[in-house]
Design goal:
There is one protein chain. This protein has about 675 residues and is an alpha+beta fold. A hairpin with a 4-residue loop joins strand 10 and strand 11. It starts with a helix and ends in an 18-residue tail after the last strand. Strands 1, 10, 11, 12, 13, 14, 15, 16, 19, 20, 21 and 22 form a twelve-stranded mixed beta sheet that branches. A four-stranded antiparallel beta sheet has the order 4-5-7-6, with helices on one face. Strands 2-3 form a two-stranded antiparallel sheet. The chain contains 21 helices and 24 strands. The chain is about 30% helix and about 20% strand.
Length: about 675
Amino acid sequence: MRKLICCLAVLFMLFQSVGAYAESIVMDESSASVDENAVLSPVEIALLGRPKAEQPTHLTVGNPTMVSGSFFTDMWGNNTSDIDVRTLLHGYNTVEWSSQLQFVTDPMVVSNLTTGRSGRNALYTVTLQQDLTYCDGVTPITAKDYVFSLLLCTSSQAAALGAESSRYSQIVGYDEYHSGKAKALSGVRLIDEYTFSIAVKAAYEPFFYDLANLWCIPYPRSVLAPYCDVEDTKKGVQLCNVDPENPDVPFTVELLKQTIFDETQGYMHFPRLTAGPYQLTAYDKATGKVNFAINPYYKGNFEGVKPLIDTLTLVPVVPETMMAMLRDGRVDLINKCVDGSLIQQGIALRDTGFEARNYARLGYAYCALACEKGPQQFAAVRQALAYCIDKDFLVNDFLQGFGIAVHGYYGMGQWMLLAANGTLRPDAASDKELAAWDTLTLDALNPYPQDLTEAKRLLVKSGWTLNAKGKKYVEGVDDVRYKKVDGQLMRLSIRFAQAQNSVGAQMVTLQLAETWPQIGGELIVEEVPFTEVLADFYRKDGDRKYDMNFMGTNFTAVFDPYLILHTEDDIAGSMNTSGLRDPELMQLAWKMRKTEPLDLLAYEKNWLKFQTRFNAVLPTIPLYSNVYFDFFTDRLQNYEPNAYYSWPTAILYAYVAEPGDTNATEGKQEVVEN
C-alpha cells in the first residue's frame, strides 16, 4: 500500500506540472529544436511534432458506461460517458483546470482578463481572442455567445425544464433573473463585440478555486434561440427580439423544449454546431454508439494542442466481451476498467500488441440513498446498512487489490487524501508547518466494518422494535422490523435498483441479501437498465421509486460539495441527489469553498471537518476508490491518461501509427506561439 500511495504522490506532481508545460514550450520557429536524447512529455511530443498519417486515422473507444445522450450541459445529468462526449464537442471555456488546485484563463480564448470591484462585489472583465469560430468555420464566436450561454443556463425557462444552474449562483443578479422576477441578469455586462464582464457576489469570496467563477462555454444562439439576440441595458444583459414580425421575445419554455429536447434534432442529443476539438457526426440512441470527426477549425486547447486522429467512435462495452473486443480489434481503447478480473485479462494482453495505463480515480463508488423518504431517512438505518456491507471484500474480490476502501466523500487521486495519508507535503514547508500537517489524518473516521451486532444495536436504539401488528418485534418469529413514524407503522424495507451488467452492484446486493434480513430488514432488488437507475437517481419523473442503488462518481474540476448538499428547496430538489438536508454538513462544505486560494493547510483542515461529518451522517455509503486501467492497441501512441483527467483530454495529445513509427513529416513540426 505504501508503494501505491507513493505512486499517487507522483501522479499529483504530474497534475501540478501540466500548467507549466504551456509556458515552457512557447517558442518561435528559430528555436524549434529537440534534443534527441531527451525524454519528452506528452505535451512536448504533441507540440513539437507528431507523425501525420497519409491515410485518415480512426479510433474506436469502448466504455463500460453507456451514454444517456445528455450531450449539451451537465445541468440535466452527469453520466460519465456523457461527460466524455461533452469534453470532445464543447470547447473554448474561458478557464481551464491546470491542476487540482488552480484554474487559469485559456490563452487560446482569452486575450486579457482584468479584475476590479463593483461596489462590494468582485468584477472580472474578459476580453476574447478575435479568431474563434464554431465547427462550421463560418459562425464567429464573440462575447455575445458567452453572455447568451449565461443567460440561457441561468434562465427561469431552462429551470422550468429541470435544468440545475446553481453553479452560477455566485453571479450578481442570479437569484432575480433565475426566478423570473427580472428580465436582465444584472451581474453580467456586454461591453463590446469581444468583451464582457461578470460581477461576483461579495458573499461568495474568497473562493478556493478562484477563477472557476468565470467558467463559461459558448453556445450558439442561432440554434438554441432563433430570432433572439443579446443586448446590454442599464439593468444588465438580457435577450431581445430580432424578428420584426413578432414583437415578443421568442424565448419560451416551449421553444427550448423544441431546440434542446427534440428527439431527432434537439441540441441535447444532436449538438451539431459546437466549438470543441471534435464535432458530432452521428448518434444512435438505441445502441449508444456515437461518432465524431475532427473539428478542422479548432484552434487548440489551452496548451495549443490540436487533435490528429481524424475520427472517433464511442461504443458501450460489457464485462463479458470487452477484452475479446479489444483483442479482436473491434475496439482500440477500453477506458476506465475497474473489475479486477478484467484488469488481469488486460494486463495479460500486453505482450500481444496492447498497452496499459493506470491512474488513480478522482472519485469513488458508493451506495446512493434516497434520504428524503423511507427508512433510509434515518441516520441509524443508513449506518446499519453500512455495517452490513464488507468493503474489504469488494476491494479484494471485485477490484482484486486495485483500490482502497473509503469512508467519506473522497477519491484516491485527490491531493487532500494524499496529504491526510502523510505522503504529500508542500514544497519548502517549515518544521512547524510540517508538524501541523502531520496532525491532519483520517484516523478518526468510522470505517464501518461489517458488524451485524452493531447494526442491530443501532436499529433497536432508534426505535425499530415493532412487528407488523405494532407489537414487540421478536427475533425468530417476526421477519421484518417496524417503527412508528408520524403515527404510522413504517416497514424496514429497502428497494434496491440494481443496474444491469453491473458486477459491482450485484456484489453489493448479494451481500445485503444475506446480511440485511438477519437483523430484521427487507431487501427488494429490481434489476433495471442503467439509464433507468440514472433517471430515478436524478428524479426525472418526480419522486423516486427506489431507495438505494450502487453508483460511482468522478468529481468535477471544482471539488465543491456545497451545492450537492444544499438544504434549500429550490436547489436541493434537483442538485442534492442524496436527499439529505443537514445544515451542519452544508455549512462545513461552505467553509471549505470559502478558503483563501492556495491556502492548502486551511483547506485541508476544513476538508477533514467536512469528511468527519459526512462519515457520521452518511448521505451515501462510501465503498471504495480505485485505480482505473485503460487498455489499448499499441498503434495508439502518446496516449497518457495518467497525465490528464479524462480520455477525451488525453486523446488530443495522441496519434495513430505503427509501433516504432516516429517519422514526423519533415520540416513540419507543430510550433505554437501563445
